[in-house]
Each structure stands twice: as structure tokens, then as C-alpha cells.
Specification:
The protein is an all-alpha fold and about 190 residues long. The protein is built from eleven helices and no strands. α3 packs across α7 and α7 packs across α8. It binds fe (iii) ion (2 copies). One fe (iii) ion (FE) binds next to α2. The site of one fe (iii) ion has 5 residues, from α2.
Length: about 190
């Protein structure tokens, strides 16, 4: 399946707003890939498909992951929404024919991040946060500039703001997000 066919299929699976977000992530990731010398075709596909399983009902998300032998953590049980990243990687492979492991990895870690991310992983994580259709979040202007000047600084900034936001709301922070923050905080200091 080529990217045009993927786009047509995705359009049928997502509500208009989420589809527009996906296109926003696709092209934002593409421009960042130019900037950082990353394969832009991979960035475009990963950006396009990163949320492809977002609208699978939550109980089904758990079921479908378990059926495929994917581990579901305590945190994911309570917040099945988090599983959309893992499940989107699975769907990208099964339903859109993506076999490239770098693309699948970037989709899989786009919500929580992970320590030792590849440049493509970081690009998708960041593009998801800064794409033009996004609501303006705290520090957005600074974060958008950092995205095109310092990938790690930008990543850390987003992780920090996400953790602060979740703590403020009284929501649990996924341990992987916390671990990712600590890893890059140490890297940069
Ligand atoms: Fe997502
Ligand atoms: Fe997204």
C-alpha cells in the first residue's frame, strides 16, 4: 500500500478532526526530518498513521493487545487510552502493510516516549505535540522553535510539561514517561 492509499483508508477510519491532526503530524514530521537528516518518507508514514487505532473502543484495545501477546501494564489497564500507541503500531503493520521497524517504533512510543529514542521516534513524539492544528499549550511558541533547533531540549520540554500537567490534574504519570524524562534530563545536564 502506498502513502496515498494509506491516507484514503485512514480517512475512513478517523473522525475529521483526528484525520486533520494526523495530516498535520505527517507534514510537521516531514519538515523536521528534512531539518535533521532523517528519512522523510518514513517520517511522513509514521506521522500519518501514529493514531490509526485511536478510535478502537477502550475495552477492545485491551482485548486486541492481549490477543497478540502484547503486555498490558497496570497503568494501561486503568488508562486503556494509552494503549492506542501500541495498537496503532500493530494496525499500521496488519492493516496498512507497514513492515519498517523504525516507523513502527516511532508509532509505538509516540505517547509515552522511551529512553534511548531514535531521531525518528523523537520527531513523531514532538510533531504530535506541535502540529499546527493543536490547541495552544503552555510554552507552545518556545517548544515549536526548539523543535527546529534542538531536538533533545524540545523533547525534554514537552515531557516536563506533560508530567506537570498530569500531576496538576491528579492523573497518574506512566512510569515510562517518567523514566524517559529522567533519562533525557540526565543526558542534557
Ligand atoms: Fe496519539
Ligand atoms: Fe496524535
Amino acid at each position: 500500500m502506498d502513502r496515498i492509499q494509506m491516507t484514503a483508508k485512514l480517512k475512513e477510519k478517523l473522525p475529521t478532526k483526528r484525520f486533520e491532526h494526523s495530516i498535520g503530524v505527517e507534514y510537521t514530521a516531514g519538515t523536521m526530518a528534512f531539518m535533521y537528516g532523517v528519512d522523510y518518507e518514513k517520517a511522513l508514514i509514521a506521522g500519518l498513521l501514529h493514531d490509526c487505532a485511536k478510535y478502537v473502543p477502550n475495552d477492545k484495545k485491551i482485548q486486541k493487545c492481549k490477543k497478540r501477546g502484547i503486555s498490558v501494564s497496570e497503568c494501561e489497564y486503568h488508562n486503556p487510552e494509552l494503549l492506542h500507541a501500541k495498537l496503532s503500531a500493530i494496525y499500521a503493520k496488519e492493516k496498512y502493510g507497514v513492515t519498517d521497524e523504525e516507523i513502527l517504533s516511532a508509532i509505538e512510543c509516540h505517547t509515552t516516549g522511551k529512553p534511548e529514542m531514535s531521531a525518528l521516534d523523537k520527531i513523531i513524539y514532538i510533531a504530535d505535540y506541535i502540529e499546527p492544528n493543536r490547541n495552544i499549550l503552555p510554552d507552545m511558541d518556545i517548544i515549536r522553535k526548539e523543535a527546529y533547533s534542538d531536538l533533545d531540549r524540545c523533547l525534554l520540554h514537552i515531557l516536563k510539561n506533560c508530567i506537570l500537567y498530569l500531576q496538576k490534574k491528579g492523573s497518574i504519570v506512566d512510569p515510562i514517561t517518567q523514566a524517559t524524562y529522567e533519562y533525557y534530563n540526565k543526558e542534557l545536564s
